[in-house]
Amino acid sequence: MATPERIRPAAAEDTSLVTGCGRRIAVRCLRLAPADRPISRVTLDVGPDQGDEHGTWAALTADEARDLARLLLLHAGLAEGRS
Question: What SS3 string covers the chain?
Fold first, then answer.
């Protein structure tokens, strides 16, 4: 099993992708550290499309990010004809 250091992207590694429709989806970790209760979220920033239609963003808990990853993998398999 990978340690957290091994699964973190390298500083120079791009943590985004550009879709076929031209939207850039950036994935990052947001950490807020108030003294009483630190907060960490996985953020998705979906940029504007090629026609400059506004983008959107989401901040997910670690469990929500894992659930989304599972759903994306499931539907990617279905799109490729696998179940």
Answer: CCCHHHHCCCCCCCCEEECCCCCEEEEEEEEECCCCCCEEEEEEEECCCCCCCCCEEEEECHHHHHHHHHHHHHHHHHHCCCC
Task: For the chain, give every domain's residue range.
Answer: 4-79
Query: Quick check: 26 and 45 in contact, CB under 8 A?
Result: yes
Question: How many angstroms separate the CA atoms of 33 and 38, rounded?
Answer: 4
Is-above-0.85 flag for pTM? no
| pLDDT per residue as tens digits for the range 68-77 | 999 999 999 9
Q: Which structure tokens are listed for 18?
A: 């550009």
